Amino acid sequence: MILRGFESASNGMLSLMDNLDNTANNLANVNTAGYKKSALTFKNTMDSSVYQKNGELIKGQSTGNNRYLGELSMGSETMKISYDFTQGGLSQTSVPFDFAIQGDGLFKLMDRDGNISYTRNGSFCKNSEQFLTTKEGDYVLDNQNRPIRLYNDDMADRADAFQILVTEQGNIEAFDGRNRTALGSIGIFNFSNKEDLLAVGYSRFRPRSEDNQELRTPPTKYTIHQGMLEMSNSNVIREMLNTINTNRNYESLSRVVTTNSDLLDSAISVGRIKG
Protein backbone atom coordinates (compact mmCIF):
# COMPACT_ATOMS: atom_id res chain seq x y z
CA MET A 1 0.00 0.00 0.00
CA ILE A 2 2.89 2.37 0.73
CA LEU A 3 4.30 1.93 -2.77
CA ARG A 4 0.84 2.44 -4.27
CA GLY A 5 0.60 5.68 -2.31
CA PHE A 6 3.94 6.83 -3.75
CA GLU A 7 2.85 6.04 -7.29
CA SER A 8 -0.58 7.65 -6.98
CA ALA A 9 0.82 10.84 -5.42
CA SER A 10 3.67 11.13 -7.92
CA ASN A 11 1.28 10.75 -10.89
CA GLY A 12 -0.95 13.43 -9.41
CA MET A 13 1.99 15.79 -8.86
CA LEU A 14 3.12 15.40 -12.47
CA SER A 15 -0.40 16.23 -13.68
CA LEU A 16 -0.50 19.30 -11.43
CA MET A 17 2.85 20.45 -12.85
CA ASP A 18 1.37 20.21 -16.36
CA ASN A 19 -1.65 22.20 -15.20
CA LEU A 20 0.57 24.86 -13.63
CA ASP A 21 2.58 25.20 -16.86
CA ASN A 22 -0.65 25.60 -18.81
CA THR A 23 -1.92 28.25 -16.39
CA ALA A 24 1.39 30.12 -16.61
CA ASN A 25 1.06 30.15 -20.41
CA ASN A 26 -2.46 31.59 -20.16
CA LEU A 27 -1.21 34.28 -17.78
CA ALA A 28 1.71 35.16 -20.05
CA ASN A 29 -0.69 35.78 -22.95
CA VAL A 30 -3.38 37.91 -21.29
CA ASN A 31 -2.36 40.82 -23.53
CA THR A 32 -1.75 38.80 -26.72
CA ALA A 33 -4.17 39.69 -29.52
CA GLY A 34 -6.28 36.75 -30.66
CA TYR A 35 -4.98 34.39 -27.96
CA LYS A 36 -7.36 31.60 -26.91
CA LYS A 37 -6.84 30.18 -23.44
CA SER A 38 -6.08 26.49 -23.14
CA ALA A 39 -7.18 23.87 -20.65
CA LEU A 40 -5.97 20.35 -19.88
CA THR A 41 -8.08 17.23 -19.66
CA PHE A 42 -6.89 14.49 -17.31
CA LYS A 43 -7.60 10.78 -17.08
CA ASN A 44 -7.13 8.20 -14.33
CA THR A 45 -4.24 5.81 -14.74
CA MET A 46 -4.42 2.07 -14.15
CA ASP A 47 -7.98 1.94 -12.81
CA SER A 48 -8.71 -1.41 -11.25
CA SER A 49 -11.82 -2.92 -9.68
CA VAL A 50 -11.45 -3.78 -5.98
CA TYR A 51 -13.24 -6.71 -4.32
CA GLN A 52 -13.33 -8.18 -0.83
CA LYS A 53 -12.52 -11.88 -0.41
CA ASN A 54 -12.42 -13.52 2.99
CA GLY A 55 -11.87 -10.17 4.65
CA GLU A 56 -8.99 -9.24 2.33
CA LEU A 57 -8.93 -6.67 -0.48
CA ILE A 58 -8.10 -7.96 -3.95
CA LYS A 59 -7.88 -6.30 -7.36
CA GLY A 60 -9.01 -7.63 -10.71
CA GLN A 61 -12.13 -9.46 -11.85
CA SER A 62 -14.78 -10.81 -9.52
CA THR A 63 -14.78 -14.55 -8.85
CA GLY A 64 -17.33 -16.43 -6.78
CA ASN A 65 -19.05 -14.37 -4.10
CA ASN A 66 -16.48 -11.62 -3.80
CA ARG A 67 -18.03 -8.29 -2.77
CA TYR A 68 -17.43 -5.38 -5.16
CA LEU A 69 -16.08 -2.34 -3.32
CA GLY A 70 -15.34 0.11 -6.14
CA GLU A 71 -12.53 1.36 -8.37
CA LEU A 72 -8.93 2.02 -7.36
CA SER A 73 -6.99 4.67 -9.28
CA MET A 74 -3.22 5.08 -9.26
CA GLY A 75 -3.42 8.82 -9.92
CA SER A 76 -3.99 10.82 -13.08
CA GLU A 77 -2.14 11.91 -16.19
CA THR A 78 -2.65 14.57 -18.85
CA MET A 79 -4.85 13.28 -21.66
CA LYS A 80 -5.20 16.25 -24.04
CA ILE A 81 -5.12 20.03 -24.35
CA SER A 82 -8.12 21.94 -25.66
CA TYR A 83 -8.77 25.60 -26.47
CA ASP A 84 -11.57 27.93 -25.48
CA PHE A 85 -12.78 29.88 -28.53
CA THR A 86 -15.16 32.16 -26.66
CA GLN A 87 -15.12 35.79 -27.75
CA GLY A 88 -12.36 38.02 -26.41
CA GLY A 89 -12.83 41.72 -25.77
CA LEU A 90 -12.38 44.17 -28.67
CA SER A 91 -9.78 46.92 -28.37
CA GLN A 92 -9.79 50.09 -30.47
CA THR A 93 -6.46 50.71 -32.25
CA SER A 94 -7.50 52.96 -35.18
CA VAL A 95 -4.83 51.19 -37.28
CA PRO A 96 -6.34 50.64 -40.77
CA PHE A 97 -4.89 47.13 -41.15
CA ASP A 98 -6.06 45.87 -37.76
CA PHE A 99 -9.19 43.71 -37.93
CA ALA A 100 -11.25 42.02 -35.23
CA ILE A 101 -13.77 39.24 -35.75
CA GLN A 102 -16.88 39.42 -33.61
CA GLY A 103 -18.64 36.06 -33.78
CA ASP A 104 -17.56 32.78 -35.35
CA GLY A 105 -14.59 32.04 -37.58
CA LEU A 106 -10.87 32.58 -38.09
CA PHE A 107 -8.65 34.36 -40.58
CA LYS A 108 -6.80 32.02 -42.96
CA LEU A 109 -3.06 32.47 -43.49
CA MET A 110 -0.49 31.03 -45.90
CA ASP A 111 3.28 31.28 -45.46
CA ARG A 112 5.87 31.48 -48.24
CA ASP A 113 6.09 27.68 -48.37
CA GLY A 114 2.35 27.26 -48.81
CA ASN A 115 1.64 26.08 -45.26
CA ILE A 116 -1.82 27.00 -44.00
CA SER A 117 -2.77 28.18 -40.52
CA TYR A 118 -5.70 30.00 -38.92
CA THR A 119 -5.87 32.82 -36.38
CA ARG A 120 -8.11 35.30 -34.58
CA ASN A 121 -5.23 37.79 -34.41
CA GLY A 122 -6.05 40.38 -37.05
CA SER A 123 -2.95 42.56 -36.60
CA PHE A 124 -1.98 42.82 -40.29
CA CYS A 125 0.03 45.08 -42.58
CA LYS A 126 0.83 45.47 -46.27
CA ASN A 127 4.11 44.26 -47.75
CA SER A 128 6.21 45.83 -50.50
CA GLU A 129 4.10 44.04 -53.14
CA GLN A 130 0.89 45.55 -51.72
CA PHE A 131 -0.41 42.25 -50.31
CA LEU A 132 -2.15 42.02 -46.96
CA THR A 133 0.09 40.00 -44.63
CA THR A 134 0.76 39.26 -40.98
CA LYS A 135 3.63 41.02 -39.20
CA GLU A 136 5.63 37.79 -39.78
CA GLY A 137 5.06 38.00 -43.56
CA ASP A 138 2.36 35.34 -44.07
CA TYR A 139 -0.34 36.10 -46.62
CA VAL A 140 -3.92 36.71 -45.49
CA LEU A 141 -6.27 34.78 -47.79
CA ASP A 142 -9.58 35.89 -49.29
CA ASN A 143 -12.79 33.86 -49.49
CA GLN A 144 -11.42 32.12 -52.60
CA ASN A 145 -8.20 31.05 -50.82
CA ARG A 146 -6.08 33.61 -52.66
CA PRO A 147 -3.61 36.14 -51.21
CA ILE A 148 -5.28 39.55 -50.86
CA ARG A 149 -3.75 42.28 -52.99
CA LEU A 150 -4.79 45.69 -51.69
CA TYR A 151 -4.33 47.58 -54.96
CA ASN A 152 -4.79 46.44 -58.55
CA ASP A 153 -2.36 47.28 -61.36
CA ASP A 154 -4.14 50.55 -62.20
CA MET A 155 -3.70 51.80 -58.64
CA ALA A 156 -0.13 50.65 -57.98
CA ASP A 157 1.50 53.92 -59.05
CA ARG A 158 -0.75 56.04 -56.81
CA ALA A 159 -1.43 53.65 -53.95
CA ASP A 160 -0.98 56.40 -51.36
CA ALA A 161 -4.00 58.21 -52.79
CA PHE A 162 -6.36 55.39 -51.74
CA GLN A 163 -7.82 54.54 -48.38
CA ILE A 164 -8.50 50.85 -47.72
CA LEU A 165 -11.95 50.24 -46.25
CA VAL A 166 -13.33 46.92 -45.04
CA THR A 167 -17.03 46.35 -44.43
CA GLU A 168 -18.48 44.31 -41.56
CA GLN A 169 -18.85 41.36 -43.97
CA GLY A 170 -15.17 41.57 -44.94
CA ASN A 171 -15.57 43.22 -48.35
CA ILE A 172 -12.45 45.24 -49.22
CA GLU A 173 -12.69 48.56 -51.06
CA ALA A 174 -10.17 51.18 -52.16
CA PHE A 175 -11.52 54.72 -51.77
CA ASP A 176 -9.85 57.75 -53.38
CA GLY A 177 -12.26 60.34 -51.99
CA ARG A 178 -14.72 59.98 -54.84
CA ASN A 179 -14.93 56.39 -56.06
CA ARG A 180 -14.83 52.99 -54.40
CA THR A 181 -13.13 50.04 -56.08
CA ALA A 182 -13.93 46.51 -54.89
CA LEU A 183 -10.83 44.42 -54.18
CA GLY A 184 -12.32 41.16 -52.88
CA SER A 185 -13.30 39.87 -49.47
CA ILE A 186 -11.37 38.67 -46.43
CA GLY A 187 -11.96 34.94 -45.96
CA ILE A 188 -13.44 33.82 -42.64
CA PHE A 189 -13.34 30.07 -42.00
CA ASN A 190 -14.34 27.63 -39.31
CA PHE A 191 -14.06 23.90 -38.60
CA SER A 192 -16.46 21.05 -38.03
CA ASN A 193 -14.59 20.18 -34.82
CA LYS A 194 -12.79 23.01 -33.02
CA GLU A 195 -11.56 20.62 -30.32
CA ASP A 196 -9.33 19.06 -32.99
CA LEU A 197 -7.38 22.31 -33.51
CA LEU A 198 -3.77 22.48 -32.38
CA ALA A 199 -1.97 25.71 -31.44
CA VAL A 200 1.23 26.26 -33.46
CA GLY A 201 2.40 29.57 -31.97
CA TYR A 202 1.67 33.25 -32.61
CA SER A 203 -2.04 32.67 -31.78
CA ARG A 204 -2.35 30.35 -34.78
CA PHE A 205 -4.03 26.98 -35.14
CA ARG A 206 -4.02 24.01 -37.46
CA PRO A 207 -6.28 20.95 -37.52
CA ARG A 208 -4.73 17.83 -36.02
CA SER A 209 -6.44 15.47 -38.48
CA GLU A 210 -7.40 15.70 -42.13
CA ASP A 211 -10.93 14.59 -41.23
CA ASN A 212 -11.63 17.93 -39.57
CA GLN A 213 -13.49 19.69 -42.36
CA GLU A 214 -12.82 23.34 -43.09
CA LEU A 215 -16.03 25.36 -43.33
CA ARG A 216 -16.56 28.81 -44.78
CA THR A 217 -18.32 30.89 -42.15
CA PRO A 218 -21.57 32.52 -43.37
CA PRO A 219 -21.51 36.36 -43.20
CA THR A 220 -24.50 36.22 -40.83
CA LYS A 221 -22.31 34.52 -38.20
CA TYR A 222 -19.71 37.28 -37.83
CA THR A 223 -18.85 40.93 -38.28
CA ILE A 224 -15.40 42.36 -38.98
CA HIS A 225 -14.36 45.58 -37.26
CA GLN A 226 -11.61 47.61 -38.93
CA GLY A 227 -9.21 49.49 -36.67
CA MET A 228 -9.82 47.08 -33.80
CA LEU A 229 -8.23 43.91 -32.40
CA GLU A 230 -9.72 41.02 -30.46
CA MET A 231 -7.75 40.60 -27.26
CA SER A 232 -7.00 37.45 -25.28
CA ASN A 233 -9.92 35.67 -23.59
CA SER A 234 -7.63 34.64 -20.74
CA ASN A 235 -8.77 36.09 -17.40
CA VAL A 236 -6.03 37.15 -14.97
CA ILE A 237 -8.08 36.64 -11.79
CA ARG A 238 -9.36 33.22 -12.82
CA GLU A 239 -5.88 32.04 -13.80
CA MET A 240 -4.37 33.32 -10.55
CA LEU A 241 -7.03 31.43 -8.55
CA ASN A 242 -6.24 28.34 -10.59
CA THR A 243 -2.56 28.78 -9.75
CA ILE A 244 -3.33 29.02 -6.02
CA ASN A 245 -5.55 25.93 -6.06
CA THR A 246 -3.01 23.94 -8.06
CA ASN A 247 -0.22 24.84 -5.64
CA ARG A 248 -2.36 23.81 -2.67
CA ASN A 249 -3.14 20.45 -4.24
CA TYR A 250 0.53 19.96 -5.04
CA GLU A 251 1.47 20.68 -1.41
CA SER A 252 -1.14 18.15 -0.23
CA LEU A 253 0.29 15.43 -2.46
CA SER A 254 3.79 16.38 -1.35
CA ARG A 255 2.74 15.72 2.25
CA VAL A 256 1.38 12.32 1.17
CA VAL A 257 4.80 11.48 -0.28
CA THR A 258 6.51 12.62 2.93
CA THR A 259 4.15 10.57 5.09
CA ASN A 260 4.62 7.46 2.97
CA SER A 261 8.37 7.99 3.05
CA ASP A 262 8.30 8.06 6.86
CA LEU A 263 6.16 4.91 6.94
CA LEU A 264 8.54 3.15 4.57
CA ASP A 265 11.53 4.14 6.75
CA SER A 266 9.72 2.76 9.80
CA ALA A 267 8.89 -0.49 8.03
CA ILE A 268 12.50 -0.93 6.92
CA SER A 269 13.75 -0.23 10.46
CA VAL A 270 11.35 -2.79 11.95
CA GLY A 271 12.47 -5.34 9.39
CA ARG A 272 16.12 -4.78 10.28
CA ILE A 273 15.42 -5.19 14.03
CA LYS A 274 13.55 -8.46 13.49
CA GLY A 275 16.35 -9.71 11.24
Could you explain how this protein is built, in words?
α1 runs antiparallel to α2. The chain is elongated and about 95 Å long. The mean pLDDT is 84. It has 275 residues and is an alpha+beta fold. A hairpin with a 5-residue loop joins β8 and β9. The chain has two domains: 2-84 and 235-274, no CATH class; 90-230, no CATH class. It has helices at 2-28, 236-274; strands spanning 38-44, 48-53, 56-59, 67-72, 76-83, 90-92, 99-103, 106-110, 116-119, 124-126, 132-134, 139-140, 163-166, 171-175, 180-185, 188-191, 197-201, 204-207, 214-216, 222-226, 228-230. Helix content is 24%, strand content 35%. Strands 8, 9, 12, 16, 17, 18 and 19 form a seven-stranded antiparallel beta sheet that branches. A three-stranded antiparallel beta sheet has the order 3-2-4, with no helix packed on it. A three-stranded antiparallel beta sheet has the order 13-14-15, with no helix packed on it.
Q: Quick recap of the structure?
A:
This protein is an alpha+beta fold and 275 residues long. The protein is 24% helix and 35% strand.
Descriptive labels:
275 residues, alpha+beta, 2 domains, seven-stranded antiparallel β-sheet, three-stranded antiparallel β-sheet, 2 helices, 35% strand, elongated
Query: What is the total domain count?
Result: 2
Report the average pLDDT across residues. Answer: 84
Helix content: 10-25%
Radius of gyration over C-alpha positions, nearest whole angstrom: 28 Å
Q: What is the structural class?
A: alpha+beta
SSE order = HEEEEEEEEEEEEEEEEEEEEEH
What characterizes the major β-sheet? 7 strands, antiparallel
Contiguous uncertain segments of 5+ residues: none
Q: CA-to-CA gap between the ends?
A: 22 Å
